[in-house]
Amino acid sequence: MDTRLLDGRPPGDAPSTHETVPPGARRVLALSTIAFTLMFAAWLMFGVLGLPIRDEFGLSDVQLSWLSAVAILNGSLWRLPAGIAADRLGGRIVFTVMLVTTAAFCYLVSLAGSYAVLLVLAFLVGFAGNAFTAGVAWNSAWFPRQHQGFALGVFGAGNVGASVTKFIGPVLVTSTAGATYFGVVEGGWRLVPVIYAVLLLVAAVALWTLTPRQDRKPGAGRPLREQLLPLRQVRVWRFSLYYVAVFGAYVALAAWLPKYYVDNFGVSLSTAALLTASFIFPASLLRPVGGWFSDKLGARRVMYWTFATMLVCTFILMMPDGYVVVEVSESFDASGTNDVLPYSIGLVPFALLVFVLGCSMGVGKAAVYKHIPEYFPTEVGSVGGLVGMLGGLGGFFLPPLFAYTTSWTGLPSATFFVLFVLTLVCAVWMHLTVVQMLHQQSPELADHFEHPTLAGETR
């Protein structure tokens, strides 16, 4: 029987209000967040660079979708090992290695001469995405429980890196096309990965020199089998599915929306990038708010509001533009066909709904990860790694699924039908879990719609 309270906290295990943040923790949080922001920007840079790459190499939409997808794939595969490594070796060394490695791969992207080479290099650059679970484990080790929701929310706000390329990419691509720098670096889209390579190396030096040398390693000396034991629990996989909906879908849309805006609303690449940023910013910057709400109100209550908002938004967005054709019988005077119930969504309402969708995802991402240190305080690396890995894999599978469902149906809005179904499955599973827990812990309330003592009261 699950004896957790409804907000996900073990009974009698409320967070202490007397624990203080240790020295060095804020430096760890600040520098890891900056480093994660840069790695996230490099990880998802093909969402904008993919369009000029498509023009240069003559790619189809499906080929273009795979370019983003393979980067997302490699940014997911190693999240479990990265989280465990940060627990056992310390986040300082893990983060530094990842920054230097990603910088090397970014530079090589600027030299690619074919689609096949780009696919390989996009896959390798995707290694940067694994920094998330390393950072979660690292910051969880440095912050006491009552501050973990907010701290992990601040770190997770590094997702805003997805919008960095949206801002600088189009400007750099158009203003530097045809130029050559230092005799070896070409302008246009090839300049962007070189800039990221330099910034990542600078971040590696800063993180290594400014964070505490005596790192915290909660998993050091513990058997690997013991760290992996919680992965047998169904709740870990349920949290993973939630994270597919709030993070995997976020990653997929961050890469997919520029193309969606260009192809369906006829806007320029720079406009599409700015509109996509209006989705990315709230989906990233509201993560600390989601962590704070989860600390104060309980993570599960926040997840209810998240899924409800996502369902409303995706339901409206999935409705295709068009109308119903009614054929009138010849026995009536006005025989023939009539077009009724016309429906279309303009650019402004579409962008506003996507903005609200991003807000709900930002809050929800923090709420999912708030559960992990509450249920598994000594296995954050392994559990957070699995949740992050499966969430990232959702971001890998979704862009090709968007492309194929659009191709099969001929409806661009099929993208949001996929997200609606995914969110509905998560919401139903979560609600059934809560109902089952209520029946187990309070069977006397199973047949009541309100508290029995209140139901008999008269006013």
From TrEMBL:
PROSITE patterns on file: MFS
Span of domain Major facilitator superfamily (MFS) profile: 27-438
Compartments in which it is found: Cell membrane
Protein known as: Putative nitrate transporter NarT
Pfam families on file: MFS_1
Gene: narT
Keyword Transmembrane helix in annotation: yes
Keywords, in A-Z order: Membrane, Nitrate assimilation, Transmembrane, Transmembrane helix
GO CC terms, sorted: plasma membrane
Membership in a protein family: Belongs to the major facilitator superfamily. Nitrate/nitrite porter (TC 2.A.1.8) family.
Region (Disordered) residue spans: 1-20
Membrane disposition: Multi-pass membrane protein
SUPFAM superfamilies per record: MFS general substrate transporter
InterPro entries in alphabetical order: MFS, MFS_dom, MFS_trans_sf, NO3_transporter
A GO biological-process term: nitrate assimilation
GO molecular function: nitrate transmembrane transporter activity
Main location: membrane
Transmembrane portions of the chain: 28-51, 63-81, 93-110, 116-138, 150-169, 189-210, 239-257, 269-290, 302-320, 340-368, 380-402, 414-435
Keyword Membrane in record: yes
